Amino acid sequence: MTTDRFYGGVHGRLENLREMLSFVAETNPGKNDLVSWVIANTSAGSEDAVKKHLGFIEGIDQIRREGGVYRLGDHGQEYHQNPEAAVLYDALTSGVKGFRTLLRGLDDGPMTDEDIMDLLVATYDECEMTTPGPALRHREWLQAIGYVHRKDGVNRITDEGRSALGSVSDQERIEDLQRELRQSDMRCVPHGPQRLTESVYPAVQSAYPTLCDDDYRCEDAHEGGKDQAEWKHAIRNVLNQLADDNQSRVQRHDEHGAWMFTPRFKPGKRYRRAELHDKYDGQEQSGISPSRKVPVVFIFTGDTGELYGYEDEFENDGTFLYTGEGQVGDQTMDRGNKAVKQHQQDSRELHVFEKDTGGLVTYLGQYVYVDDYPETLPDKNEEDREAIKFELRPVEEIEVETEVDLPEGNQNPKRKKTTSTSPERNDELVRDLKRLYDDTCQLCGDRRLQGDDIGYSYVHHIKPLGKPHSGPDVPGNVIVLCPNHHDDFDNGMLTVNPESLEILHEYEDDLTGESVTEKRGHDLEPEYLAYHNQTIVNE
C-alpha cells in the first residue's frame, strides 16, 4: 500500500508530472539525467529523495526503466496523450490499494485524515499505520486530481470523485464486510463459546445480509480458491486476525474450531450488578468475581470498601491500585486474588466497575495485572494486617476523538517584566496543544519520553513572539515539536509549504516530502508559515 508524493505539493504536482513525462518521452533519459532534470525543474533538493519519489512514479507505471534508460509506461503513455484525472486515477488504483476505498469512505460522509487512516487500517491486513502520514499521501493524490476537497482539516468527495466511483464490486463488498467486523470487534456475535457454522456465520449474515453474497465464491476471488462463499472465508480471516490481538474480544476456544467471544461494556455506562451476574455468572457479593461462563474476572470498587479494610485508589497516570479480597486477617494469594494475578496466563480479561447506589455499578474499563505488593492496612475489625495491593493498568486509553477547545490566544501578547522584557506565553494554550497531540511531533511523529510513559515536547511559535517579529500567541501560530525539530525550526533548517503543508528539510531526506500532521480543531495559518519560510529561514 506504499504511496509517495511528487514535487509541487497538491496544486503543482500534476504539472510537474506531465512535464517530466514529456521529458522522458522526448529524451529517454538515464537515471542520473532524470534525477538531474527533477532537481533542476522542481523544488527537489536531494538525489536520494528524488529517487524515492521516482520509485513510486514507476510503481504506478508512469515510467519504466528498460536497458538503463527510462521510457513511458503503458499508463504513462496514456496519461501523456490524454492528461485527464480519470486516466491518472486508473493508474493510481491499478498500482496501489486504498484510493478507491478512500473515495467510497468519503462518499458516506466527510472524514479527517485520522478517519482515513482508521478506514485503511480496518480494510487492509497489511496496513499497519499508527500515524496518518501514509493516509495523507493517498488523500493528497486524490486532491491533486480533483476528486477530494479539503477545508479546515476535513476532507470531502467532489462531484468528479463521486462520478469516478461507479458501482460497487463483489470484492469491495467483501472488503466492507471485513472492515465492519474488525471495527466492531465482531460485536454481532453473542458472548460465550461459539462455533463457526452453527453460530458465527448465521450471526454475521443476519447483521450484514447485503455483504454476504453466496454467489460470490472463493474460486472467483482467488486462484485455486475453494467452491465456498467468499464471505465465509473473509470471516475466518478476520477471526484469526482478531484472535492475535490481545485487546480483542475474540479468542480461540478449543482445538475443534470453536471461538470464544468475551463481553464488551461501554465506559461510563451504568449496569445493574444482579443482571451482570445473571448473564455472566460470578459471585454477587464479592469484590473480585470470576465468571464461569466467559473468560472474565469482574472487579468492583467503591467507597464502602473502606468499612471492610479495603483502600483503592487511581493514580494520575491511570494506574489503579486495588486491595485484594479478605476482610479479616492477612490476605492470601488464592481464590479471587489468584484469579487477578493469573488472569493473563489463564486467558481471562479484567473488567473494573465502580459501585453506585441502588445495586447499580458504573463500568470503568478493562485493565491488566502489572504487579502486587504487601501493604499494612486495618481489617474489618480495625486491626492491622498484611493486605495485597494490586497494580492494574488500563489496557488502553479510552479511544475518544480528542476535541480540545483551544483558547483564542492573544494577537498582542503582554510583556512581563523580569530582568528583561519578554513576551508572556499563554500557558493554557501550551498545555492544551501538548494534550491534543499527546506530545507527538507534528513533523516526524516521534513521541519523546521523560520517565515512564510521560511525553515530552515543545510548543513552538512559527512567527516568534519576540521582537522584531512580534508574532501572535494564537493556535494557528504554534506547532508541537520534538526537541530535534524544535531546534531545526528555530534555526531555519526546514520550510513548510503554507498550502500543502509539505516539508522541505535541509538534511533529512526521509522527512522531505512528508506533510505536517494537524488534528481537528488546530490548523496552522498559512501567513505564519510563509513568514517563517521567507524571514526566519533567511536570517
Automatic annotation (TrEMBL):
Residues 400-426 are annotated as: Disordered. Keywords: Endonuclease, Hydrolase, Nuclease. It holds the Pfam family HNH_2. One of its GO terms (molecular function) is endonuclease activity. The keyword Cell membrane does not apply. Residues 429-487 form the HNH nuclease domain. InterPro entries: HNH_nuc, SRA_ScoMcrA. This is HNH endonuclease. It comes from Halobium palmae. The lineage of its organism: Archaea, Methanobacteriati, Methanobacteriota, Stenosarchaea group, Halobacteria.
